[in-house]
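Comment thread on ticket #2218

A.B. wrote:
> Attaching the input chain for the structure job we discussed in standup.
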Amino acid sequence: MITNKTIPARKTIALVAHDNKKQDIIEWALYNKGSLSRHKLCATGTTGSLLEQALDVKVHCLKSGPYGGDQQVGSRIAEGDIDLLIFFWDPLTQQPHDPDIKALLRLAVLWNIPVACDRASADFIISSPLMNVDYERPVPDLSAHMNRLKR
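C.D. wrote:
> Ran it. Output below, let me know if you need it in another format.
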């Protein structure tokens, strides 16, 4: 069964970037500062600090990714507190916290929130007319699945 959840016009955007992608996300964010400033921003530790400084806007900073920040973002997605994930990950460098990264992406897909993993996808999402209006997104009703697990 599917239910709907409203993503509000003022979205909560989580921003995450691996070390080799931090400059890319900063450049992207500076280019899109006007659009981003209309929304609530949160980010993992170092990425958040760098974005806050570069954009001169408030960014709610979580822990650094390897120290639980990816899991904090995932938890907020599961709780319905994150509406969009911009995650510039480095496909050429293995990360010590790869299982956390996979879990984060799994949760974003499970809860049907938009995800951009590269600059082109982020550009398409941020420029979408849906960015500035309420949007009804279908979300799974997991109660039947949970009941099967209890048996």
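A.B. wrote:
> Thanks. Noting for the ticket: The chain has one domain: 9-128.
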